[in-house]
Amino acid sequence: MTDSRVVRNIRRPSAELLAELSGYGVATVHEAYGRRGLLAPEIRPVLAGRRVCGPAVTSLNAAGDNLMVHAAVELCRPGDVLVIATTGPSAHGMVGDLLCTQARARGIVAMVIDSGVRDVADLREMGFPVWSRAITAQGTTKEHGGAVNVPVVCAGQTVGPGDAVVADDDGVVVVAAADVADVVAAAAAREAREVLLRKRYAAGESSLDVNSLRPVLDRLGVRYLD
What we know:
By secondary structure, the protein is of the alpha/beta class. It has helices at about 15-20, 25-30, 65-75, 95-105, 120-125, 180-200, 205-210, 215-220; strands at about 5, 45, 50-60, 80-85, 95, 110-115, 130-135, 145-150, 150-155, 155-160, 165-170, 170-175.
């Protein structure tokens, strides 16, 4: 990697917008964002039952090397989500309990790693949320440059510094910082509609009728056989 650099200052969405966005799950945010921003399903939570939302601090690393993770942790502010990417395929344990202890002390709310994580029993005991592609004991070197707070590709999605990251048991979705306000509004409208749908379904109505899907079945030539 020839252009190693660390960008100290980034623009983050307002705390008010992030607080509103945090009220919605990944599935709702993904749909409200026009089905954009969803990381590959291989990125899974180490600690189930958690939902986090925060601005991204990005760390780009050589495969199998976590030097720039250490550099990124130092720059994070309380409430940030550290997004870790690599320049090539990697399943190394990019972080473990020591880095996560430091991260928690700095107020980082979660890490999203397009690689591996280790010491997962300790992380679960700590209650520190991590989403990763792999769990492995294989360690890393600290010998190669990289970048902090530059756009990265993480699990198939471009993540820019300051973009909003929402993560829960359904996965991870990233919303560009400039789109957060629109997505919050769309998510609120979607959730209000789902409240009404839930009441109708609970009352026994069929989703085929509620969503006018019977004409679609007819158009596709779907036959009912007894």
